[in-house]
Here is the input.
Amino acid sequence: MRKLAIILGVVAVLALAACGETTTTGGGADTTPTATTAAATATATATTASGGGSAAGTITMGGSAFSGAADITIKAGQSVLFSDPGGVHNLVTGTHGQFSAATGAPSEFAASSGVSFSPGDMKTIKFPTAGKFNITCTIHPSMQASVTVTP
Ligand SMILES: [Cu+2]
Here is the structure.
């Protein structure tokens, strides 16, 4: 009889202990998942009006210089893709960073304001008239390229 009473007592204590444990659980875990709405702002880098088909040649710009072949030859009526993955540039006809009007140059190069580029820009420019056109950058006067247009 005494044994049974002790066993019951132990069971009762264990039961209370168990109850005590359970009361502590379930509290305070309010980790509301703060919805980090990643504003996936469409960084649609303004791809250019490369409207007129494929370019016959490509001139590529780095951070402060042309990279790759900067002197290319195409035929009249063909286009050059000016690709700028690297930097901020402003291309004009001329040399040493100075604009000089070039007869027969594409209309884009007719003004001293030239053609501006930001990283990621790709612009296809058609050269309708034969001639040799020197192209420089007003921001980086050491940048020099040329497009030779054969008839
Ligand atoms: Cu430049």
Notes: DSSP finds one helix and ten strands in the chain. The pocket of copper (II) ion is lined by residues 89, 137, 139-140, 143 (CB under 6 Å). Strands lie at 57-61, 66-67, 71-75, 79-84, 89-95, 98-99, 115-117, 121-126, 131-137, 144-150. Residues 2-24 form the longest helix (23 residues).
